[in-house]
Amino acid sequence: MLDTWSDMFHLSLGGVKWWHDAGLLLTLTTLAGAIWGVTWRALRPQSLGWVLVLLVASVVGVVDSPLRESPTTTLRILAFAACVLLATLAAQTLALALLKVRVSYLGASVVVVVTLYAMMVAVHADDADYAAEGRTYRGNSVFTQEAYWMLPRHSLLLLRHRELAYRAWATRLAEGMRPDVLVVTADRLQRNPDSNRLLAMEPALVPLVREMVIRGHPTEYALSQLADTRPLFVELDDAWDIRLREHVGASGLWSEFHSQTLGRSDRYTSLMATRGPVERVIEVCKSTVPPDPTTLHFVSLRLKEQAAVFAAMGDRPGLFPLLDELGAIETQAAYVAAARKLIEQRPHGPINWESLGQ
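Given the sequence above, the corresponding structure tokens read:
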């Protein structure tokens, strides 16, 4: 039951670790404010509410998924707000206590308390900015440059992962990236309002839209017709006809679909001529502290997809450069080892690459 709910909401135990963002001093001040707030009857309801937020944030975490943004971002913000409010309560309580003490010059120390609290807020604001900067991954911008800016003019991207399409759309809105490139997801082709808008932008999509609505997957004719009109780059689906792979060649971070079938030498030449962008993205993602897991995951998906094409065609020479690039990603070590073992077991003919999974 717990696994079912965790998978549904992408949550897990472990907490969002709000105390890492708060720091030791603010955490201790928060605990003091929480104790005083719960003890004081007038503040008990509000204090219990904020304490409950901190308890939930200490228990509920997020499943590590490279395809999703954390759904607990709001919880992390609420937890930090609870820290600030409870710490403010502690500082106010201390200041009022000092004002009530009838000792010469002791009341003036209230100014010191307020000043120290203001300095603590300023210091934590600076630390939070540094932490946010540390979480900014450069791999995303490099991936955008290498994956989108290097596409031929008037290209069309037929994507399977909506998260990857959202990256392209967001970059286009924010930076005006490549307005000539048409980014399409398979589900948009099957929805009437979206498909009508896409047909208005590109009439050559008519065969593809028809096949997606009727069959749920593209045919060789529909994609070949589209590839004759625009440079076409696709995310392959295991449900597609195996004959479609004969038209696919590796082109950097994408798989390009050609209107005609490719020979072994053409496929290998295209692969080796476009390895630079992939290597640059992997290098930048690994050099980022911390590493960029989301972009590395998308790069690994692209490399596995390209490897699956070579395996289906039995083109083993093209598999080894792709496995070398996958091996540079630490999380793919087990996959690469299993793939090399599978190649050794099948020295000739097509390889059942789907048995390796993703």
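The chain has two domains: 2-134, 139-356. Try to locate this feature in the token string yourself.
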